[in-house]
C-alpha cells in the first residue's frame, strides 16, 4: 500500500471540505473495494476521508408515506435486520442479508456500494426496481439517472451520497446466482409490484451494468406469476461473457432468477 493521509470526518460538510482540499482524495465508507485495491497498489489516493462516523448519514427511518430512508453509511447487516425494512420491503432485507460474508455485511455500506456501482453488486437492482431516490450533499437523483454504466454513476467527483429513499411496494423479492468464490451475482433479479406496475431489474449479467426488463414487466402486469416470464430473456449480445459463464449462460440465468424472484414475491 502506498502512503496516504487519513481523515475522520464528523459531518458531511466536514467531509466535503476535506475532499476539496485533497490532491487526490477518496471517500472511505465500508472500504470493501477501496482498501483491497489500495493494498494491491492499484489505487494510491493522497487522502482518505472516513465517512463512517458521521451520524447524519447513518440509520434507517420509515417515513410518513411508507417509504424507507436509509443513510448512506448504514451497513448491510443493519439493513438486513431492520424490522421496518423487513416488513415493508422484505426483498431488500433479504438482498442485504446475502451480500458477501458476515464481515462484509458488518463493514460494507449502502452508500459505498452504489457509489462504486460494481456491475455485479446487488443494491443497484433494488434501487432500479423500486424507483429509489438517491440523496447527496448537492442534489437528488432517480435511480435510472444515477447508474450510468459499469463502475460509473452521475456523481460529481466532490459529491457525497447521504441517503437512499426506497418507496413502498406491495411485493418484493431478490434472487441471485452467486459466484461461489466471490458471492457477487453472476445474475441477480429484483422484482417489485408497485403502485405504478411491475418492475424488474437485473444485475451481474449486463455489459453496461444494471438494467430493467420492460417485456417482463409488461407480462407481469397482466399475470403476476413465474410462468409469465418463463419464455423471456435479455438479448445475448448485451450480456457479459467471461471465465465464469458465457453470455448465453447469463441470459438463461436471468430468466431462471426472474422466475424464482416472482415466485418468492408472490
Automatic annotation (TrEMBL):
It holds the Pfam family FAD_binding_5. Residues 1-171 form the FAD-binding PCMH-type domain. PROSITE patterns: FAD_PCMH. Coiled coil: none annotated. It comes from the Bacteria. InterPro entries: CO_DH_flav_C, CO_DH_flav_C_dom_sf, Diverse_Substr_Oxidored, FAD-bd_PCMH, FAD-bd_PCMH-like_sf, FAD-bd_PCMH_sub1, FAD-bd_PCMH_sub2, Mopterin_DH_FAD-bd. The keyword Oxidoreductase applies. Keywords: FAD, Flavoprotein, Oxidoreductase. This is Carbon monoxide dehydrogenase. It comes from Pseudovibrio japonicus. The lineage of its organism: Bacteria, Pseudomonadati, Pseudomonadota, Alphaproteobacteria, Hyphomicrobiales.
Amino acid at each position: 500500500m502506498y502512503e496516504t493521509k487519513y481523515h475522520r470526518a464528523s459531518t458531511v460538510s466536514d467531509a466535503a471540505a476535506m475532499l476539496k482540499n485533497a490532491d487526490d482524495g477518496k471517500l472511505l465508507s465500508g472500504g470493501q473495494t477501496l482498501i483491497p485495491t489500495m493494498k494491491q497498489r492499484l489505487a494510491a489516493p493522497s487522502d482518505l476521508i472516513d465517512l463512517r462516523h458521521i451520524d447524519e448519514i447513518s440509520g434507517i427511518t420509515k417515513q410518513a408515506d411508507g417509504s424507507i430512508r436509509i443513510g448512506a453509511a448504514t451497513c448491510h447487516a443493519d439493513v438486513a435486520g431492520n424490522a421496518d425494512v423487513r416488513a415493508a420491503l422484505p426483498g431488500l432485507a433479504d438482498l442485504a442479508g446475502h451480500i458477501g460474508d458476515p464481515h462484509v455485511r458488518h463493514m460494507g455500506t449502502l452508500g459505498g456500494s452504489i457509489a462504486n456501482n460494481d456491475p455485479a453488486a446487488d443494491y443497484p437492482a433494488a434501487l432500479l426496481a423500486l424507483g429509489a431516490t438517491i440523496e447527496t450533499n448537492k442534489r437528488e437523483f432517480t435511480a435510472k439517472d444515477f447508474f450510468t454504466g459499469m463502475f460509473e454513476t452521475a456523481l460529481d467527483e466532490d459529491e457525497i451520497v447521504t441517503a437512499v429513499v426506497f418507496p413502498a411496494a406491495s411485493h418484493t423479492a431478490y434472487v441471485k446466482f452467486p459466484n461461489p468464490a466471490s458471492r457477487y451475482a453472476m445474475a441477480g433479479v429484483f422484482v417489485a409490484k408497485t403502485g405504478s406496475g411491475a418492475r424488474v431489474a437485473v444485475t451481474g449479467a449486463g455489459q453496461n451494468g444494471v438494467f430493467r426488463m420492460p417485456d417482463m414487466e409488461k407480462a407481469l402486469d397482466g399475470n403476476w406469476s413465474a410462468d409469465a416470464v418463463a419464455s423471456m430473456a435479455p438479448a445475448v449480445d448485451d450480456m457479459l461473457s467471461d471465465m465464469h459463464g458465457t453470455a448465453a449462460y447469463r441470459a438463461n440465468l436471468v430468466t431462471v432468477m426472474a422466475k424464482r424472484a416472482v415466485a418468492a414475491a408472490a
